[in-house]
Amino acid sequence: MRTRPRLVYERWTDPVAADILAGGDIEVVKLDLNASDEQGWAALESAHGYQVATRTDVVPVANGAQWLAGQPLVERCRQLLAVCSAGAGYDVIDVEACTRAGIAVCNNSGPGAEAVAEHALGLMLDLAKKITAADRALRGGPLGDRLALRGTQLLGKTLGVVGLGAIGGRLVQLCAPFGMEVLVFDPYVDEKTATAKKVALVGLTELVERSDFVQVTCPLTEETRGLFGVREFAAMKPSAYFITTARGPVHDEAALYDALVNGGIAGAGLDVFHEEPPRQDNPLLRLDNVVATPHVAGITEEAARDIAVATATQWQTIFAGRMPPRLLNPEVWPRYCDRFHEILGIRPTARDTAAVE
Which keywords does the record carry (predicted)? Predict the structure, then answer.
């Protein structure tokens, strides 16, 4: 007989996820980060699916990192079949550890791309037009010479995009009316795709040397950790701006600070930091040529709902015994299917058909 699947979640981005899953075949259990460790582990050790808590959510909680999907959690939760992250980022999940254990890993790339891409464009416009700088000057008064707030335009400038996924691709579309030359660094994009999107594939060195605006929209992986350091910032134009809606560890904060205070680059727009939320004494927050937001690029009413719908429907797909649409480790599929059959009593299928009893 088939076992009823059990899904543990920390929170939904929108209540619609609970509505979609209510009354179905999936038992849904909330993980309370403020409860005792014993209660948390009791829920997770019997879970078949885990909608993993995000790093920003758990770091302020004592021992919060234990609730991330790392090697210790994977080893302890022997019934776990799949883990999913809420958005496109999946650095809260140890993909290799999950793959070794036969656990499917999914994200929810796509539904929040519009929100993040718009935010990235907003940071670029803010820096170019000195909107926040002008607001600070006006409120601080007396204003003095307003010509000192002279900005620049996006029209005809060169945009460098690091990571041409859903977010980077949408950002390119949003920037099209400005007639910008678009350079892209993404080792996983081929020339055919680049041509279709009307962008030029280049190496990272060429991108930072030529771009007036460098936009980082890639995920945090072992390949991208520390991607921007002293060398990359030194290669940028003194008039260029660095903007990131990716993850903090993709860039070296100390190297960025030095480039900003020494005139190596003109400014930065930051939605992500190494420590989140950033400490009030973070030196980057004291700079007038920095515009900062607290990892809110993807937080809009529309994105929250879209992500929640995608999250809930993906879990329905998983526990119906079908291949999830945003599977990050497809190589796990054969072993995952064996474990799924052993634990839940049905064998998944990669086709859009009913699972096999």
Answer: Amino-acid biosynthesis, NAD, Oxidoreductase
DSSP calls for 175-228:
HGGGT-EEEEE-TT--HHHHHHTT-EE--HHHHHHH-SEEEE-----TTTTT-B
Which token pair is 24?
A: 């179905």
Tell me the per-residue pLDDT of 19-62, one tens digit each, with 9 for 90 and over.
Answer: 999 988 999 999 998 889 999 999 999 999 999 987 767 766 76
Q: Are 7 and 21 in contact (CB under 8 A)?
A: yes
Q: Which residues on adjacent β-strands are paired with residue 213?
A: 159, 241
Domains of the chain by residue range: 6-107+301-344, 112-292
CATH code of the domain made up of 112-292: 3.40.50.720
Distance of CA 56 to the CA centre of its chain: 12
Element (H, E) at 244: strand 241-244
Spatial distance between the Cα atoms of 257 and 252, rounded to a whole number of angstroms: 9
Look up the CATH number of domain 6-107+301-344.
3.40.50.720
Which long-range contacts link 136-142 to residues 24+ away (Cβ below 8 Å)?
Answer: 136/288
Q: Helices 131-140 & 113-129, crossing angle to 10 degrees?
A: 60
Q: Which residues are catalytic?
A: 247, 276, 295
Indicate if the pLDDT at residue 352 is higher than 60: no
Q: Which of 132, 114, 305 is nearest to 217 (CA)?
A: 114
pLDDT in tens, 148-164: 899 999 999 999 999 99
> Residue 151, CB half-sphere, CA atoms under 13 Å: how many?
17
Place of tokens 């021992």: 63
